[in-house]
């Protein structure tokens, strides 16, 4: 009897076959699924911490940082390595020698062989057939078999034929920030990493990132602009290691104080030096910058019961040209004018006095005092002699500033001066150059920076009384007061009195000159008469000239 099979013409049969094939493929994909689908429970360490990549099993025991979930109790813990190239597959390296205990915390477990397990080298060559195996690889300890079980992680680094456990070292970050920097000034932030791991540090102020700096020899620095509002504030820093497997990230915070910018001018608009001396009742204009826009500040003076009205900052956060009058009852001492907002305050320090504060220094300049070598204060625009030494005290400079000294119109070189912590150049020794020409001169002591403070000392050399004129010479006096001008030839006794008594009048000199001219004419006439007489006598002797009754004589 021949039995004939029915042809597979039913669509139902065809669909059933396709479904079975898809189910099989799904099972395969489930087994080799992504490791990241599993829950990460923490980390684990291994013993030993280094070894050969060809040794199997590669380790003897593991220690976890937590326990496995209760629903994995009774299962075997499986040691595996993740595919470094695709991060989608994993392969076994061994299993726990004992079963997982439910409800346990961190545990240590011996590792033994597994029929399907291989050495680390064998597993890696499955994915990297040729070339070096050097690199960093992730190990997993699964709470049971399969790719989606909860897992602990560890990392090893392969170098040549040796592997080593990578244990991430903790780092400590310390942050410092310059303090006392004025609003808008340059503020330096310094972060120090311990141990000195390579990486970068991001600096932050609140939610604002200020920039990132690389760590060099364990340190990273960044200079930023200080905030526009003064007072206490904090900065943050975050260290990111270059090798996150070897070092952990760390953070730090540093407090600092931003200073207000305070200045003052006198009634004439002159900028006052730091901590000036003010007399009682004196009025100055004070400007303080560093407040929030529109902030209201309480005004007070230390050591005074005087009540002052509040003042408001402008839209730039500045209290500008606040008119302050020193209270009459203030003691002769150091005081401060305060502008206080929410516990933060701007300070204008001064010294009050009820004594005469008019400056004895040259040109009434409050920033200049000049004394001679004996300590006597010189007047304004003093007259100095070449080679004379004086001592100059100049005020109003930046604390510790270098001060250049120059004499206008002179090639002479002078030593630089230096301001002290109060911004004062104390008793600078100045010697007037010996070859300095007579006239007006100005010595300038200028801070060695752009827009730096400068003080001028004006003085003169040469005669200090230009109204004096040279005395008459002795010859002029004698010629105007000789007895000759007062003789009788002057014409009268009055002429004699005038010429001799005055001694320098023009009348006596004129008469003397007239008498001299008359005498000269008389002498000339006498000479002509004598010559004429001699000529007549000679001619008579020669017979060339006869008078009536004479007989000519011939020789």
TrEMBL record:
<feature type="region of interest" description="Disordered">
    <location>
        <begin position="352"/>
        <end position="385"/>
    </location>
</feature>
<feature type="compositionally biased region" description="Low complexity">
    <location>
        <begin position="358"/>
        <end position="369"/>
    </location>
</feature>
<keyword id="KW-0732">Signal</keyword>
<keyword id="KW-0812">Transmembrane</keyword>
<feature type="compositionally biased region" description="Gly residues">
    <location>
        <begin position="482"/>
        <end position="508"/>
    </location>
</feature>
<feature type="signal peptide">
    <location>
        <begin position="1"/>
        <end position="37"/>
    </location>
</feature>
<feature type="region of interest" description="Disordered">
    <location>
        <begin position="454"/>
        <end position="508"/>
    </location>
</feature>
<protein>
    <recommendedName>
        <fullName>Ig-like domain-containing protein</fullName>
    </recommendedName>
</protein>
<feature type="transmembrane region" description="Helical">
    <location>
        <begin position="518"/>
        <end position="537"/>
    </location>
</feature>
<feature type="compositionally biased region" description="Low complexity">
    <location>
        <begin position="462"/>
        <end position="481"/>
    </location>
</feature>
<keyword id="KW-1133">Transmembrane helix</keyword>
<keyword id="KW-0472">Membrane</keyword>
């Amino acid at each position: 009897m021949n039995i004939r099979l029915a042809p597979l013409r039913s669509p139902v049969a065809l669909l059933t076959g396709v479904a079975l094939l898809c189910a099989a493929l799904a099972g395969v994909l489930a087994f080799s699924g992504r490791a990241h689908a599993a829950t990460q429970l923490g980390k684990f360490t291994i013993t030993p911490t280094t070894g050969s990549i060809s040794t199997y099993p590669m380790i003897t025991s593991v220690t976890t940082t937590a326990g496995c979930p209760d629903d994995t109790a009774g299962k075997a813990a499986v040691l595996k390595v993740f595919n470094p190239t695709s991060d989608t597959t994993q392969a076994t390296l061994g299993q726990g020698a004992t079963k997982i205990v439910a409800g346990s915390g961190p545990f240590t477990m011996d590792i033994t062989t597994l029929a399907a397990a291989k050495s680390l080298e064998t597993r890696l060559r499955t994915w990297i057939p040729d070339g070096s195996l050097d690199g960093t690889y992730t190990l997993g300890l699964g709470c049971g078999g399969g790719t989606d079980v909860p897992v602990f992680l560890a990392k090893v680094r392969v170098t040549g034929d040796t592997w080593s456990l990578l244990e991430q070292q903790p780092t400590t970050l310390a942050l410092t920030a310059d303090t006392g920097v004025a609003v808008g000034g340059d503020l330096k932030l310094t972060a120090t990493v311990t141990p000195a791991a390579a990486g970068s540090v991001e600096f932050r102020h609140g939610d604002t990132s200020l920039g990132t700096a690389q760590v060099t020899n364990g340190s990273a620095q960044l200079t930023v602009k200080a905030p526009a509002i003064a007072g206490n504030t904090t900065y943050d820093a975050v260290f990111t290691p270059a090798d996150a497997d070897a070092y952990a990230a760390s953070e730090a915070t540093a407090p600092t104080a931003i200073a207000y910018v305070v200045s003052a001018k006198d009634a004439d608009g002159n900028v006052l030096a730091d901590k000036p001396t003010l007399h009682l009742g004196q009025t100055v204009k004070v400007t303080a910058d560093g407040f929030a826009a529109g902030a209201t500040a309480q005004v007070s003076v230390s050591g005074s019961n005087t009540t002052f009205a509040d003042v408001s900052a402008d839209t730039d956060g500045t209290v500008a040209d606040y008119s302050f009058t020193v209270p009459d009852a203030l003691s002769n001492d150091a005081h401060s004018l305060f502008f206080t907002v929410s516990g933060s305050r701007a300070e204008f320090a001064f010294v009050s006095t009820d004594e005469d504060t008019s400056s004895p220094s040259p040109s009434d300049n409050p920033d200049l005092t000049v004394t001679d070598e004996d300590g006597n204060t010189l007047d304004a625009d003093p007259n100095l002699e070449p080679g004379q030494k004086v001592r100059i005290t100049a005020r109003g400079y930046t604390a510790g500033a270098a001060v250049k000294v120059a004499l206008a119109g002179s090639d002479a070189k002078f030593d630089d001066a230096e301001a002290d912590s109060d911004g004062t150049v104390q008793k600078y020794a100045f010697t007037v150059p010996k070859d300095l020409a007579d006239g007006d001169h100005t010595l300038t002591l200028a801070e060695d920076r752009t827009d730096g403070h400068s003080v001028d000392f004006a003085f003169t050399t040469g005669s200090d009384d230009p109204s004096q004129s040279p005395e008459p010479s002795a010859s002029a006096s004698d010629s105007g007061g000789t007895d000759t001008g007062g003789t009788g030839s002057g014409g009268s006794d009055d002429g004699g009195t005038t010429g001799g008594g005055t001694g320098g009048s023009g009348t006596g000199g004129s008469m003397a000159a007239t008498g001299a001219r008359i005498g000269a004419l008389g002498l000339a006439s006498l000479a002509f008469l004598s010559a004429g007489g001699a000529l007549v006598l000679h001619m008579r002797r020669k017979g060339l000239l006869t008078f009536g009754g004479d007989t000519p004589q011939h020789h």
